[in-house]
Structures are given as C-alpha cells and as structure tokens.
C-alpha cells in the first residue's frame, strides 16, 4: 500500500515511575480500514490510545496525521485533528438529551443563545446516517436509552465531529449478541464511509468478523502484526506467548456430581418469573443469556439482595427465603459480583482484610479482628497461599494487585465460610488470558471439593468451556437447558428467541 | 429488546418526571397549610395580597443566596462560606458608606470585589488544590469570620437612607427587593438554559471527565460557579445591610444562610451530586421556606421551638428526595 | 499492574515498612517550639495542663474518626457538647449528689442523638452532612429551650471533678489531672475498638466501599449507626470535661465540630471514608491545641485562632490530596 496512513504512530515509548508502559511501538491505520488492536490486560493498549487521544504525551516517538507530525497536549487537540475515542465507560451525561450530548462543549449559538433547532436537525441527520434515526429521539434523555443506543449516541457524536479516526475500546463489553451484530454493521458502514477504525478487543470472534489488519501488543511492545486476519490461534499465541492447552478445566465426571444442593421452584419477582432449576453438589452450572435476560437478577434473588416474591427455594434440603444477603451467606451461599471494583473490593484495605471481610462480618462486633468462628489471620494467609495470590505482602493494599489476584482474594473471603453454593458473576471480566485459566481451574477445584457452583457470564465460549450444564435465560425466565460443550449457535438461538441467527 | 429490559428502562423516566414536579407539589402543600393555619386560628387578615408580598419579602436574602448556591451545587460543589461572606459584606458596605450617600457606589464596588475574590479563592482551592469543597468553604468561612471578628464585634457603620431603597423601596407599587429577586432569578434561568456557559455547568456537574474530554475547561466552569455564588451572597449581604440599616458580624450566621440556602436548593429538586436541577425549583424552595416560617408565626410558635422544628424540617426535606434512592449515601 | 511485576514467591515474609504518620513529626516540632518559647513547659504543671486542655478535643477527634472512616461527617458534636453542659446544669440544679445519674442521663442522650443521626443517614438516606447539620440546629434549639435562653453559673463541684480536678503528689509527675486519665482511658478504648476488633475493620470496609461490604455480608447499617453513636458518646464525655473547665453557657460547644474534623484530618483520616487512625487523630488534636497555645504565646487575639484553624483545615486536606496524587492514587 502506498497510500499515506491517516494516522500513524512511530516508535512510541512511554514510561511511568517504575514501569516501561510502551517501548518502540509503531502502528498505522489507513482510511476505510478496520485495524484491530489486541493484547492482554496491561499489554499497553490503553496507554497507546491515551497517547493517540492526547491524554498522555509520549516520551519517545511521533504521532503523524496524514503524514504530518502532530503533538496533542489535550484531548481537544486530538478531537480537532479528527480523532475520536469511544471509551469503555461512556462519556455521556445521563440527565441531558441526545442532542445536548452530541453537541457537548461545542454547542451551536446564535446571538449568544443556544440554537436548539439547528442542533436538533444536525443530530437527526447524523442518526439517520446509520439508520438509528427512527430508534433514537434527539430529545430523549440519555438515561432513558438502553446501552446499545447509548453507544450509538457516542458513535453519532464522533461522526458529527467529522472524525477521520474512530477508536473503539472494547465496544461490545456491555452489549448483548443482537446489539453486537448491530454494532458490527455500523462499523462496516463507517469503513465504507472511509473512516479509519481502530478496534480494541480481546474477543477473537470480533477480530475475525471485522478486522482488515491486526496488531498484537504484549508487555508494551508489538508482538506481532498481521496484514490479513490469521487464524485466531495465531493471534492468541502472539498475545500469550505460548499455546494454551489446558485453558479450561475438564468437565465433572458422573461420580463427581452429588446430591441436589439448591433448587428453585416457581421463583419470581419484578424481574423474574417461573424460575425452576436444580443445582447439584460438585457441578458447575452455567447461565447464558443476553444482558437484561435476568441472570444477575436471579443471582441477587438467590442471594437475598433482591428477594424472590413468589416460589420456593430449597438449600440443602431445607426451605429457605432470604430477604438480606446476610441470611443467604449464613445459610451457605457466597456471591462474587460482576463489577469487581464497584461491588467486590474495598480497594484501600489490605489483601488480607479483603479476605477476612466476610468472616469478620459474622463475628461479634467487639471480637478480635484477628480471629473469629470461621478462621484466623494465619488461616486466611493459608487460603491465599493455596490459591497462589501474588502480592508483595498480604498487608499490601489490594488495589495494587492484578484483576486475577483480586478475584482470588474475594474467593478466599468465601472459602473461609465454607459455602455450599458459590455464585460467580462474570468471573473473568477484565482479567488477562493467563489468569482466566487459573479462575476456571479454581472453580473446578471448588466443585470437586463438594460445592455447587453457579457461573453467570456474558462470554459465551467461556460458559461453554467451563460449565457442566448450561441454562439459558430470556426475558426473566429459564428457556432451555444445554449439556456441556453445546454449540454457540444453539445457545444463541434460545437466548435471543430467534428462529435463525442472522449473519 | 426484551420485555424485561423495556420495563426497567421505563422506570427511571417516571422518577425523573416525579422529581420535576415535586417542588411545585411541595409549594402547593405549603400554601395549603398556610391557608389552613390562618383559617384555623381565625387570622384571615393574613390572607391578602400585601401579606403575600410580606411573606416573600421575608426571604429575599435567602433567595438571592440560594440562586448562587444553585450554581455551585449544579457543578457538584457546595459553598458553606456564604453566611460569613454575607456578614463581612454587610459590615464592609455599612462601614464604607458610613451614612454618606456619595459612598454608596464605592461601597458596592468594594463589596463586589470582596465577593469575587472570595469566590475565586474558593474555586481555586477546590479545583487546583483538589480540596473537598465542603472543607474548602468551611475553612474559608472560618477565615472570613475570624478576620471579621478581629475588627468589629457589633453593629458598625451606617447605611444612608438612599441605599435603604434596596430593602424598603417600591417600584410600580411593588417592593423593589421582590422585583430585584425575580429579575435575578430570570437572569439565572436564562444563563443556565440558553447559554453555552449554562450548558457547560450541567455538563461539569453531570460528568466531569466527559466534560473535560469534550474540551470544556472544567476548572474554569467550577471557578465561575463559585464566583457567581459568592457574588450572590455579596448582593444578599448588601440587601441585609440596607434592611438592617447597618452591618453586624453575626447577621449571616444568625440567618443560617449557608445551611438554609443548601436546603432550599435541594427542596427545589437540584441534586447535591450535581448536573440536575434548576432555578425555578430553587425559587419554589425559597417560597416554601417563607411559608413555613409564616405558618410558625401565625401559629405563634416560640422562637426556640421554631429553631428545633427548622432543623427537623431541613432534614425531612432532604429525606423527601433521598429516601427513594437505592444507593448507599455517605 | 500485571502479574509479571509482582513476582515475590513467598509473600508473607516481606512486610511493608511501617510508615510513620507525619502528624507525629509536626506535633514534635510544635512542642519543641513551645518549649523554646516557654521553658516551663517541661515541668509537669506545664505539659499536664496542656494535655488537660487538649483532652476534650482529643476525645472528640477520636470519636469523629469513626464517622469519617465510615464515610460521613458528624457536625452535631459541638451542639451536643452545649446540650450536655446546659442540660447537666438544669438537671443537677446545684445538687452535688445528682452527678452520677445526670451523667448517665447525658450518656443516654448521646446514645439517642447518635442513633437518630445514624438512622436518618442509613434509612432516610440523607447525606450525613445535612443530617448532622440539621441535628446541630435542633440540639442548639433544645439547649436554648431547656435553659430558657440564658443559663449561667457553674455546675456542682462533684460534676466538675472530671474536668477540673488534679490528683496531687503523684510520683515522678507530681500532678495528674483527672481529665488526662479520662483522655487516656477513652483514647485507648477507642483505639482498641477501631484497630483491634471486627467492628473497626468493618467501619473501614464500609467507608471504603459500602456496596462491596454489604454484598460481603457486613451489616452496614449496624456498623454505620455504631460509628455515629460512638461519635456522639465521645461528645458527651468531652462535654462533661468541658463542663468542669468553665461556666455554663449556650456556646460552650460552638466550633468544636470543625476542630474535631480538623484534628482528624490532620491525623491523616481520609474524608469520605476508608482510612484513618485513632492515635493519629488524638495527635492531630494535640497538634491543633499546640498551635493555639503557640498563638497565645505570640499574643495573637482570639479571632486569629479561627483564621489559622481555617487555613490549617484547608492546608491539611490539600496536602493529603497532593500526596495521594503524587504516589499515584
């Protein structure tokens, strides 16, 4: 290709105190091209994008737009040069309208007054451009839109800025399957319009579906560059640096599965209806479904955080009704929340304190913080050792640990209470590839030790690879059951309720 | 989109609509209570136009302060230094004027400069030094009050009769102060609704990172909001000097203008977390407070009991909005 | 922040070096400055009187730390002190034999105030700042109502014992004020409760991330209400000491809420929760008292204290924010 890339980064280096985040990274994207940027967490993808968008300044190297070197000192400089970034956390204002959001910081004014009409017209035009005009009202509050529509507003904002380069940072993280497909179509349209799209992901399926070229980052350097999309295994190999043979743990054998430990009959509340299922000791039961299908609502109902209004729940042969998490925990249920930072960790406290949190919560208020009915400090250290939590010290603040190790500390919290049932919600979200395998094996070990494991995940291959049995939810109820290793297509059909999956 | 998600999407819209009308409903309830209180005690002489004006007139200082407070709360900040600033301005203006009509303009100028400086410093401490706005403005309040007490301990200076027009004058048969208050509210509404600066205020309060990435200079917006708030407090101080005919170092603290202005803004539906609310809610909140005060007067409630009830009402008013949140508050 | 950067195979053996809280250095420097200004300070009558004067604030700060670490503020403590002094004077009515039951009643009132603060914050979801400010106005009003507006005189001598009395002829230190004993006992009890019990660790967890604590099974409402109750009880004890110091009036407690917060912040307590230490808060209270003492030596008038306190409050928070930013969150 002789064309000048619309955006090019040459020999980029960036150092933070004690860490080299990027070293000699080069990267280019042509107009009308989707360039996938892949790598494990911590490989340097975010740092690279932050340099591209002017949040950070590089220590070495140059950024070139249309062949001319530029220096972005503020995100606004990058925007002016036609580079828009759609971050994972949306940068929309929920209490403002779609129009107000799209024109945020660059409102059209006439005689010192906002020109609402002109802005609304332009918003409608941009939304119509990719067929979202009928679905999104320019005057609607963003908080009234669903996640996929909010993302479309983000994209519309970028388009109305005449973005030449659009960076999408894991855009499907919060989308369900059908919304993903809509997003892919929009990316196709952007490519046809001549926009250069930099697409950051760790999902091989999306790389295969969308990318024209692939760059793999590993430990802050370019590990591989492909001008054509290769086999996923080649990309994974470049990301991880080795083959991943035993990625998932083996399924449970027939004699590992024991008696029913938990069952729900006719369970329902405002988000759920007619929930019927059984969980056996020693098995990993996977829950698949699109976002909003009620999987998390079910977990929270079993855990007492948003109780069932109807139906019966049996735990270890006894009828139970939990209206508060404490009751559920006392009866032997543990839950690992999907939003680890927001709902799982107390980030300023030590690794050990995070592990001791639940055992302490059930000790007497004035009892010693070192010892309670369930465990003591050395017992907790033993649990953390056994799970190979990597930390400079267990007195260290947990926020300094990697995602995988943080997750293990939360598991330790529950192990100390010896739960009968453990519910994992999105157990590997934001965890790098190597650590993921560790979590799968950990879940299997817990199941072998006799616990019933419930796994809720939006990563379908993960559910298929790790669960012994898969229940599919749709619109607040369980619609199908699949055996271990079922096909992705079959599960998606049940999850979406469509008769055939559109290509 | 599934039915389950559709249901959960509609719920927040309902909530927003309820909160939009809540200040009006509360105002209606307060008016009803006032009328009932007057009728029940047989004091129908309070139910006329002049008394209505008197009820509003009682809260002009609070209202002006609250308009400024609305700006800082909308950018997710807060200002607890307004009461001290009100005292300082009242004293400064009355000392500078010292009964001389020729000094009215210099006194107003000096007061506005003081207010602007206080607002600027508040804004700089909050943005540049990253100090929690509560602490920053509480600290500022201590500094102002300390400086003030070092110089005066009682009524100081005097306001010429010409300047008393602000509090006592009439225009077109209406009290000037009330017209001034509504004009100020109208300007504030216009700024918030129809200018880019107003739009930026909502953006910064709603999501500071998003605003920054959109190229809005968030620090400048926050500083400007603090300056506006302090200037409003300055005007309230001038009004009180005009009304009391002199300034004293305790008039701000006595009026509890810091806490009451916040309470009034919150009752008006502006969220303490920023980014949502508006001026008309605040105006409704001010009128609700005036009415409650008047109800106490009509019922002849003892001054100390009134203070006790006032504390309870402020908490109850905030609870009215807060109790439905699922979030755990700090 | 990947696994590669943390590759210590045996984590237990590498312990973090204990970091010394800067407030202790500041306190030491101030004490040296006081001694230079007034050599008599090294005599027991010098430093014991200093400790005695600092005792109410130290106790109050130790209680305030509980609320701050749990993620809130308690602005009602100043007016609670006033209520305790005024109320004790009304109840005891100059009858020395009433002391014990009056103290019990006051502790009961403290318990009630703390419970109301905590319940309003937890169940009515009113931000603690507003809830406790409302409580402050209310308690001040009650103190006025109770006393009819203008209380005067002194509490009975048996009541003033705690704040006023010095035990003489103690070996080595010659005199030992009862207030200092109360400070030591309450300070140690609050230290133990905060740093050596489940409740203390749970207060940290709740202030750090309430949602996570809740899902981990922490009874967050019970924990948060406990923090407010502890703060209120510490205010009652501080009020009993202050009742011994001087006369009865309706502004005994004025300004103490801000002093307590300033002291806690000086001791490194993190606003909005998750981090804080009782001994450091007590050191913060001593630091603040030392600063006021120095200002006295320098002959600066009372209002200057207010100005200085305001500046210290802002500076302490600004410095904490600066250090946090520099060390990368």
Please, could you describe this protein's structure?
- The complex is a heterotrimer of chains A (503), B (330) and C (329).
- Chain A is an alpha/beta fold and 503 residues long.
- Chain A folds into 3 domains: 234 residues, P-loop containing nucleotide triphosphate hydrolases (Rossmann fold, 3-Layer(aba) Sandwich); 134 residues, Rossmann fold (3-Layer(aba) Sandwich); 82 residues, no CATH class.
- Chain A is built from 17 helices and 22 strands.
- In chain A, strands 6-9-10-3-11-12 form a 6-stranded mixed beta sheet, sandwiched between helices. Chain A has a 6-stranded mixed beta sheet with strand order 18-19-20-15-21-22, with helices on both faces. A 4-stranded antiparallel beta sheet of chain A has the order 2-1-4-5, with helices on one face.
- In chain A, a hairpin with a 2-residue loop joins strand 11 and strand 12.
- In chain A, helix 4 packs across helix 5, helix 12 packs parallel to helix 14 and helix 14 packs parallel to helix 15.
- Chain A is globular and about 70 Å long.
- The model of chain A has no long low-confidence stretch (mean pLDDT 86).
- Chain B has 330 residues and is mostly helical.
- Chain B has 15 helices and 2 strands.
- Chain B has a two-stranded antiparallel ribbon with strand order 1-2.
- In chain B, a hairpin with a 2-residue loop joins strand 1 and strand 2.
- The longest helix of chain B is centred in the N-terminal third of the chain and has 38 residues.
- Chain B starts with a helix and ends in an 8-residue tail after the last helix.
- The N terminus of chain B is likely disordered.
- Chain C has a single domain, classed as ABC transporter involved in vitamin B12 uptake, BtuC (Orthogonal Bundle), CATH 1.10.3470.
- Chain C is mostly helical and 329 residues long.
- Chain C is globular.
- In chain C, 69% of the residues lie in helices and 3% in strands.
- In chain C, helix 2 packs parallel to helix 7 and helix 7 crosses helix 8.
- A two-stranded antiparallel ribbon of chain C has the order 1-2.
- At the B-C interface, helix 6, helix 13 and helix 15 of B face helix 4, helix 5, helix 9, helix 11 and helix 13 of C.
- Chain B: It is found in: Cell membrane.
- Chain B: The complex is composed of two ATP-binding proteins (LsrA), two transmembrane proteins (LsrC and LsrD) and a solute-binding protein (LsrB).
- Chain B: Part of the ABC transporter complex LsrABCD involved in autoinducer 2 (AI-2) import. Probably responsible for the translocation of the substrate across the membrane.
